[in-house]
Amino acid sequence: MSLTVASSAGFCFGVNRAVKMVHNLLDRGKKVYTLGPIIHNPQTLAELAARGVVIAETAEGVPPDATLVIRSHGVGRPVYGKIRSLGLECCDATCPFVAKIHAIVSRAAEEGKTVLIAGDAAHPEVCGIMGYCGKNHFVFKDADELKKLLAEHRLFKNEPVCVVAQTTFSVAEWENCLEIVKKVYTNAVIFDTICNATAMRQSEAEDLSRHCDAMIVIGGKQSSNTAKLFEVCKKNCVTYLVETVDELPLQALKKAGRIGITAGASTPASIIKEVLVTMSEINEGAAQDTKDPKENAAAQNNTKENTTEGNFAEMLEESLKSLNTDEKVHGVVVGVTPTEVLVDVGRKQAGYVPASELSSDPNVKPEDVVKVGDEMDLLIMRTNDQEGTIMLSKKRLDAAKGWEKIAAAADDQTVLDGVVSEVVKGGVIAVTEGVRVFIPASQATASRSDPLDALLKKQVKFRIIEVNRGRKRAVGSIRSVLKDEKKAQEEKFWETAEVNKVYTGVVKSLTSYGAFVDLGGIDGMIHISELSWTRIKHPSEVVNVGDTVTVYIKALDRERGRVSLGYKKPEDNPWVILKDQYPVGSVLDVKVVGLTSFGAFAQVIPGIDGLIHISQIADHRIDKPQDVLKIGDVVKVKITDIDFDRHRVSLSIRALLEEQAEESENSENN
């Protein structure tokens, strides 16, 4: 026998979020009521009831001193109005994917559209959706019911229609329904609102069931998505729907060669684990009886982890021993998954650390933090004697230790090191010593215009500027440290700064009149006239923000804290180049760049234009330069004069023409 577990089995995001919300309220000492069952799983509901959670059918049944939790299925708009009118404290655990549907149908109703909902009209999620649709809405559970609906309401063909689906609706059935809708309603606006997790879960279950002799679907019998999984799987192989391990048809399963296991979105991991343990024990027995050595070895490999833990009866007996919450334990990592870390704490109970309780950084992956064999101190968060599990936390124990350092740092203004783990509304969260510290946007960067996103995942230094010891919350400031660092850099700069000293800096900003360069603690400015020997219209023609440049100090104003920088290199001065390489008498090709009534200007070298006087354009009298030249012409000229003081160069075409004529005449005479 081989066992394969679907990777998407177990709590979905929305359910996990809702259950955690309830537990968090209970941990804070709140009296909790839920508007209907928070989850379609009897075992989880029993656990919550044992902690004092009461299920209310309506908001009127909730006492004024209680906190009402709206479950992940969501509720209609009128229910929120009732809760407000009663003045009840409310926590909304509506799944974000469901809330998205509420927004879609609400907007459609405002636009006068008829809303068609694919789903179970009696399901609480669909009831909530209908509470946002107004009067014009209809629900259909499958393609056949959709056909009947369309036949009864033929007038809708010419009206605007919006189509959505319950998040747990069958993917296959949704595709069938869409074919019908698209044929009938050419103007229908369709939103595929089936949850991605639901689609993936159904797809995996269907694929797995095609390759198995039997499937086990674990979940509450009232759960819509669990029922969909059961329907998907039973089309391909024998399928059993069980709520707990006690409902497993063990004798029938022993005959199956390959068994697949999946679970609904409201099935706790502990029940899935119990089923796996029981199935592994059956597998172990089958492995001992097999005659084929290869099959025996494979079966032993499949149950290796389970056989090292003793038999299930012993584990169950040991699980009756209670562990106190908030007890510190030392454990060894025995397994790492994407969602949790399995830990041996020296007891028969299965210890596990959810990924959310491993580190204060919500983005961290368990496999990046720990590995099998690592030892660590942990805090017991919750024990479940019935399920034989212990939920542990590393981040809370780390935070408890780190908080002492945070409180001390607030008193003596010690600079702390941390990593920015999140960019949140109004600032960022930095983690240090396992403690999350909020840093407001006004204290996060040197300038308010600097983007907060650039800090994400970066190592930062900050001070604690505010502490709430009662709630164990702290506020930090990165700007405070940056300000001190900049002040120290400025003092160091002014101690050593002198005219003509060369620096390497980074262009920080550009204006129409120049570029500002960060020299390390202080900014200096390169005036636009100092950026290039040639005339430019804007500094961006030479440098850009972020460029590393080599500059030198032209002038210092210590009183006003201003630094003027030079960027042009003397050796690049075109007049120096002209003097060295193009003396009077040089002949060269030039390009005409301008025409006037008295002559033509031509570029001698980049940065220097020379004048060809009208009398020097030809070897005969001309009325105007345009009679001979046009802009863009390249002509050969002779440098006849250079005035370096006045930066003027005289050029002549005529001189060359006369020389050529003289040479020609001499040649003829000879």
Quick description:
By secondary structure, this protein is an alpha/beta fold.
Strand element count: 32
Our measurement of the CA-to-CA distance between the termini, rounded to an integer number of angstroms, reads 116 Å
The biggest sheet, with number of strands, parallel, antiparallel or mixed sense and barrel status, is: 5 strands, mixed, barrel
Specify Rg, calculated over alpha carbons.
40 Å
Shape: elongated
CATH architecture annotation of the largest domain:
3-Layer(aba) Sandwich
Strand order of the largest sheet: 13-14-15-17-16
Alpha plus pi helix count: 19
Low-confidence blocks of residues: 287-326
CATH first level of the largest domain: Alpha Beta
Alpha-beta classification: alpha/beta
Named CATH topology of the largest domain: Rossmann fold
Number of domains: 5
The helical percent reads 25-40%
